[in-house]
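Deviation from plan, reported transparently: pyridoxal-5'-phosphate complex.
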Amino acid sequence: MSEWKIEIERCPEDRRQPIPTDGSKLGFGRLFTDHYFRCRFDREHGWHDAKIVPRTALDLDPAAMVLHYGLEVFEGLKAYRAEGDSVHLFRWRKNAERLQRSAARLEMEAPPVELFGAGVRALVELEKDWVPKAEGCSLYIRPTLVASDPFLGVRPADEFLFYVLCSPVGAYYATGFQPTRILVEEHDVRAVEGGTGEAKTGGNYAASLRAQRKAKEAGYTQVLWLDAKEHRYVEEVGTSNIFFEIDGKVITPPLGGTILPGVTRDSVLQLLKHWDVPVSEERITIDEVLKASEEGRLGEAFGTGTAAVISPVGVLGYRGRDIRIHDEKVGPLSQRLYDALTGIQYQREPDPFEWTEKVC
Ligand SMILES: *Cc1c(COP(=O)(O)O)cnc(C)c1O
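Because the crystal trials were delayed, the predicted structure below was used instead.
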């Protein structure tokens, strides 16, 4: 139980939206539930004014620091509906803790873990009818922290708004679990050492859009980011962490400041260790990946993230060539990880790590 009291102002019935029943039409991030959670911070009162209110436009000064200097950090997690209609969160504390680390990088003040949890739980409980029933669908939760001081000087902020949105989302793999085509990006970079790569902050995504558009135009789904210094070391794929299976060993780049510490990445590492699959966090160059592929030692490659869970890589485009991985088919390890993680999330399987928490 938490000490945080959350006031609830319900949306009048006549202003509520119809709750969609067709999971196949949901897509991602377009539709939002009727309420959101919000609270405020200032130096005098600390965190206060924790409320769930009908979702309307934000009351934010045009001079608010977030709008001028990008002082924003966010999170992404999901609530899943199990057989029998109970609703569960997956490892929400990891998201609350990561929000604090992201905020600290930008000299921002994040809500305490227990306030984050109380807000998310109360909101999901209120909006429980919005958690889709259809297979593979879920309620995506977007905690967001912005600096709200009306001030144009460049200095750390003193006033913050934290809010949480909920959005029902469809199955990521509408047409089945499918490998993606990934283009290795050799010019633009996502993150530099000493920069903000390990923070989930809006600016990182703004800077990634040019490469993403070019990759799409060239017929790929996403980009594979390389390190900023030598353009050799593999970092991430799009907005997911990346794993390669080479000679039966699973390799993912270590968290060294430029890589986003994914909750799914951590869960995959724990599962692989639990299964006694050899796994290591080590730096790997794109040339080593290509060499392994040429020599038939590259088994599978996959991205990990909350949205898609596991996203197998079918093709790596590099310097005008397309390298096919696992015949562009879903490999057994990707499938096993996907089944294990979604099994735990939807309560179809036991949860030996105690990763899930029942909300209602
Ligand atoms: C959010 C994100 C991930 C995945 O993190 P999860 O906690 O697994 O969802 C990976 N890389 C980037 C750049 C991200 O923004």
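The chain has a mean pLDDT of 96. We consider this an acceptable substitute for the interim report.
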